[in-house]
Amino acid sequence: MTATRVDADVIRRLPKAVLHDHLDGGLRPATVIELAAEVGHTLPTTDPDELAAWYFEAANSGDLVRYIATFEHTLAVMQTREGLLRTAEEYVLDLAADGVVYGEVRYAPELNTQGGLALAEVVETVQEGLAAGMAKVAAAGTPVRVGTLLCGMRMFDRVREAADLAVAFRDAGVVGFDIAGAEAGFPAADHLAAFEHLRRESVPFTIHAGEADGLSSIHQALQICGAQRIGHGVRITDDIVDGKLGRLAGWVRDRRIALEMCPTSNLQTGAATSIAEHPITALKDLGFRVTLNTDNRLVSGTTMTREMSLLVEQAGWTVEDLRTVTVNALKSAFIPFDERKALIEDVVLPGYAV
């Protein structure tokens, strides 16, 4: 492929894949406002544009804990069946509008039970909403395959329950597992029993690591807990000096462990200093299996199109680079091999022949 000029229209049309995207971080501002009015929750503002700006500014603190605190308002409107159905369906519609052909959406069911829903009811409702969205976009000629990752919150004590749910719903749309929340001070190995259970049941999982904590967090996620992918993982660069890989960095690259990288989000939480200097580019050039993701579309004010555009404009990425990270994502998706292969060969590669 020659180095095609990459403008906004080209990027918008490219087929995309996203592995790291939180349901409760990607609501439409107008939806948050409407649902908040229905449940009597007070927001910082009831103007959609102002609310979107408030989220971006509030999250732009350089601190992961403050970033997470912005989820108070989205979670407040996701405690009812109606709220979950709507946000899950709209999630799929928004992916389709962004050119995404495969997405994995993650959320922690324990955070959606304040309105009286049981954990299993939360999962069933979200899956129903996602299915409705997938049916709509397929009928519109822009199909999106969406798999669900259930999260346990590493600061709390219900991680094993979430893992049990992932096993129970593995044939009903749930494709994997994750732990999320404040990373520093809450080591993944505290929940080793949950990960051992998932391994026994052959359920794949990723772990947030190397975002707000260092190499020890990544090492623990991989070598103690057994994660198949790493959420963020930007701190793996601490194990690379002058292009020479340390043992952990070498393990990650050589075993083709996908890094779910989220440039805009990493700037907001202080895990990176700029798009131009974000580790995703250097790691890509060193042969790591990097993937490009949004993390939280509302909170970070972003889309996959925007993330791609930023890398093109500020880090010199080409269409071939964008194709590489998209294929990387599908190679590491938590769905069967034949489905991944078909998406790569029948959808992504033809879509990048621009």
From TrEMBL:
Cofactor: how bound: Binds 1 zinc ion per subunit.
Residues of the site described as Important for catalytic activity: H232
Signal peptide: none
BP terms from Gene Ontology: adenosine catabolic process; hypoxanthine salvage; inosine biosynthetic process; nucleotide metabolic process; purine ribonucleoside monophosphate biosynthetic process
Catalysed reaction equations from the record: adenosine + H2O + H(+) = inosine + NH4(+); 2'-deoxyadenosine + H2O + H(+) = 2'-deoxyinosine + NH4(+)
Pfam families with a match to the protein in the record: A_deaminase
UniProt keyword terms in alphabetical order: Hydrolase, Metal-binding, Nucleotide metabolism, Zinc
Residues annotated as domain Adenosine deaminase: 15-347
Active-site residues, Swiss-Prot/TrEMBL: E211
List of residues binding substrate: H22, D24, G181
Molecular functions per Gene Ontology: 2'-deoxyadenosine deaminase activity; adenosine deaminase activity; zinc ion binding
Reported cofactor(s): Zn(2+)
Annotated residues for binding of Zn(2+): H20, H22, H208, D295
Keyword Transferase: no
The UniProt record lists the keyword Hydrolase: yes
InterPro entries in the cross-refs: A_deaminase, A_deaminase_dom, Ado/ade_deaminase, Metal_Hydrolase
Enzyme Commission code: 3.5.4.4
Top-level enzyme category: hydrolase
Cellular-component GO terms for this entry: cytosol
Family of the protein in this entry: Belongs to the metallo-dependent hydrolases superfamily. Adenosine and AMP deaminases family. Adenosine deaminase subfamily.
Function of the protein: Catalyzes the hydrolytic deamination of adenosine and 2-deoxyadenosine.
The name this protein goes by in its record: Adenosine deaminase
Organism: Streptomyces davaonensis (strain DSM 101723 / JCM 4913 / KCC S-0913 / 768)
